Amino acid sequence: GRWLPLNLLPSASSGRRNERVSIMRTKLAVLSAIACSIAWAQPVITPGGTVNAADYSRAALTPGAIVSIFGSGLASGESFAQALPLPQSLAGTSVEINAGGRTIVLPLFAVSPRQINAMLPYGISGNAQVRVRTAGGESAADTIALLDRAPRFFSVDQSGVGRAILTHPNGDLATRANPVKPGQFAVIYLN
After folding, report:
1. Tell me, what DSSP letter sits at residue 134?
2. What is d(CA 164, CA 158) in angstroms, rounded to the nearest whole number?
3. Cβ contacts of residue 162 below 8 Å, gap of 6+?
């Protein structure tokens, strides 16, 4: 058999995409095409879903911090930034923050249907509204409170509460068997 092409036909009236899907021809039967309708879900940020990526706390959001945004319909699939500067859109997903009357599109590290990792900009303060935009629309705003500083440690087990990531300058993880000794330099990962 052979595969036949997929044709996308947008439907403006319903907010859905009608897709004509051609499927593989077989010797037993010839199936030419079926029509189906797929709803592109509007993104939804879980209430309180914008958190500090280091420890998942909501009370430790600061300018320049990496945030994790949790919800549903946040992206069509997984996508990761491949270079610097970080992109403002991945897999058709972008994140905006409105603070002090300014709307800024955030640099993105990674997106997936249930989580986005992004960087908050510097030069913002007070309360701010975070929104996710996709082909399915725009999420409701998640209002966050920004602090001047609230450092948090990234943890080895990525739980946000485990042992802090501490490495030797060569990148080797500091452990009981490989400790940082007095007078040596070490690297600690903070957000």
Report:
1. E
2. 9
3. 155, 156
